Amino acid sequence: MTILGKITNLEILHKIISGEIRGLSVGMRIRKWECSICHKDYETCPHEKGKLYGGVKCYPIAKEIEFTEISLVKFPADPRCKVTDLLIIKIECGKKIYEWYGFEAPSKKIHLKNIRWALQSRLIPNEVANHFSKFFSINSEGKVVYP
Fold it and tell me: Are 41 and 30 contacting, i.e. CB atoms less than 8 angstroms apart?
């Protein structure tokens, strides 16, 4: 999952870059659950969680998820919840400078996916995305600056 956030506190930004804080804690409200067997409202369907139906295990699927808060933490409850990429856009002498930090991730494809997402979201132009993509196709961690 990709979450866009704006960090204005430079101290927090430095803690993310240094690795002191990269965990995420997410608060959410789930408005609807769907049954994995019949794909209807889990609250009213006849299937029971954990039981097998035709060799398929029943479980509820979260739908209509509303994120209520996201916090940076040192030790997340789920170790997979962490910052994997950080984009900093600076303006120096009227010119944009782009810095992309790629941190430890399950695969380098995560960084490439996030670069594509930043391009599609118009946070970075095409030439910047191409520059960053070349770096992360070789190395899965580090910092890249453009120009």
Answer: no
Give the pLDDT confidence of 43-77 residue by residue, as tens digits: 999 999 999 999 999 999 999 999 898 899 999 99
Exposed/middle/buried for residue 1 (C-beta within 10 Å: 0-12, 13-18, 19+): exposed
DSSP letters of 22-63? -EEEEEEEEEEEEETTT-SBTTTSS--TT-EETTEE--EEEE
**Cβ atoms of residues 37 and 56 within 8 Å:** yes
90 & 138 share domain: yes
Digit-coded pLDDT (tens) for 99-136: 999 998 888 788 899 999 999 999 999 999 999 998 88
Q: pTM for the complete prediction?
A: 0.72
Among 146, 28, 39, 19, residue whose Cα is nearest residue 84: 19
Name the residue range of residue 113's domain.
10-22+83-146
User: What is the rounded CA–CA span in Å between residue 42 and residue 34?
Assistant: 5
Does one domain contain both 41 and 66?
A: yes
The answer to whether residue 43 sits within a structural domain is: yes
